[in-house]
Amino acid sequence: MTAFFPDVPKINFGGPKSRNPLEFKHYNPDEVVADKTMKEHLRFSVVYWHTFCNPLSDPFGVGTAHRPWDDGSNSVPNAQRKAKVAFEFFEKLGAPFYAFHDRDIAPEGSTLKESHAKLDEVVKVLKDEQARTGVKLLWGTANLFTNPRYMHGAATSSNFDVFAFAAAQVKKAMEITHELGGAGYTFWGGREGYSTLLNTDMKRELDHLGQFLHMAVNYKKQIGFPGTLYIEPKPREPTKHQYDSDAAACLNFLRTYNLLPHFKLNLETNHATLAGHEMMHEMEVAISAGALGSIDANTGDYLLGWDTDQFPTNIYLTTQCMHCILDMGGFTTGGVNFDAKVRRESFEPIDLFYAHIGGMDAFARGLKTAQAIITDGRLADFVKSRYHSWDCELGRRIESGQCSLGDLEAYIVPKGDAARNVSGRQELLENLINDFI
Ligand code: XUL
Ligand code: CO
Known about the structure:
Blueprint: E1 12-13, E2 23-24, E3 32-33, E4 36-37, H1 38-42, E5 44-47, H2 48-53, H3 76-93, E6 97-101, H4 102-105, H5 112-133, E7 136-141, H6 160-179, E8 184-188, E9 193-194, H7 202-223, E10 228-232, E11 241-242, H8 247-256, E12 263-268, H9 269-274, H10 279-288, E13 292-296, H11 315-327, E14 336-338, H12 349-376, H13 378-386, H14 393-399, H15 405-412, H16 426-436
Parallel strand pairs: 1-2, 5-6, 5-14, 6-7, 8-10, 10-12, 12-13, 13-14
Antiparallel strand pairs: 3-4, 9-11
Helix pairs in contact: 3-5, 5-6, 6-7, 10-11, 11-12
C-alpha cells in the first residue's frame, strides 16, 4: 500500500488513560454497548469534500492546506491518486464509511459528457479500493452549487437549461452511487432558495423542486437503487433563504409534494444552529415524523454566526445526539457523517487524523453516556410521569380523536378550575444529565 501518511499507524483503542494522540481513548469499535458494537451503532463516515478537497481558504484568504499528494492539477490521475489517499486515511482511521459529491472525486470537464467520463475513470479506482478495504459508501450526492451555472439555483433555477443540466448530473451521480453500493443518496439544496424575493416566483420554484425530486424517485426505482434518499435542511448560506430551511420546513415540503414516503432527513448540527434550533430539536422533529435518516456531525462556534463546520468535541451535544438515535432504535442506512473541516491554521495532514479521532471519541462517549441515561431510566420515567394526567378516559378519547369541545366543557365546568400544576423540574433534570457526563 502506498503510504501517503507514513508517520501514522493504524489508529487503535488505547483506553481513557492513553496519552497518545494517535489512539482512541473511548471509541473501541468492537466493544458492545447494549445490543450492538460501537462500530455498528455509530457507523462513522468521513467526507471527501472537507477532508481531501478543502484548501482551507476563507473569504479573506487563500487556502493554507498542505497536501503533499496533490499536484494542484485538475487531472484524472491527480483525482485517482487522491482516491488512494482517501482510502489509506479511512483504513488507518478505521472509518467504515465515506461520502462524496460527484465533483469532489473527479474534476469537471468542459462538457457534461466529458465530466461523466472523468467520473467513470475515478469510480473504477474507488470500486477497487472499496473491495480492497471493505470501506463502504454512506451516501453520494451531486454538487449543484459550485459552478457559476448554478448561480440562480439548480432545480429551482429560473433558467430551464440549468434545471436540465442538474437533472442529468443527478442521474449520473445516482448511477455511480448505485454502482458503488451506496447506502444512500443526499439532496442538499445549496442554492435552492433566493437572494431577493423581488425577482423570485417562489411557488413556481417550489413546484419545480418537487417535480425534480419525483424524477429522482422514479429513476431510483428504474435502476433498482435500494439506498435511502435524504434531504439535508439548511436555512441559508450561500443564499439568504433556502427552501429546505429546517426539519419542519422539509417535512412540510415533502408532504405537500407527496414525497414523504420516499425521503428521510439528513440533519446537520451547524445547520440546526443556523436555523435557530438545537440539533436535538431537529432530531425530535424528524423522529416524530419517522423521518430521521442520518446525521452530518459537526458543530458551529458560539461567537461566529456562520457554518464553521467544526469537529464535534462537546460531550453534552454528542450525548443528546446519541440519546435521540438510541431512542429511535438506531441507524438503519444512515450514520455519523463528519461533515467537518479542520481550521485554516491546522493545515498539516496529521491534523486530519487528530480531528477525526477527537470526533469519534466524542461520539463514543456520547453513545455510552446516552446508554447509561437510558439504563438508569429516571429521565424517561420523569417524562412519562409528567403526562400522567392524560392517562384517563377523556385523555385516551382525545388522543384517538373521539372527543368534542362540549365533552371537555362537561368535564371541567363542575371542577371549577384545572388541577394544580406540577413542576417541570428542569434544573433537577439538568443535574441528572450532568451526573452521567
Ligand atoms: C453544506 C453541506 C453539504 C452537504 C452535502 O453546508 O452540509 O456539504 O452535506 O452537499
Ligand atoms: Co452537510
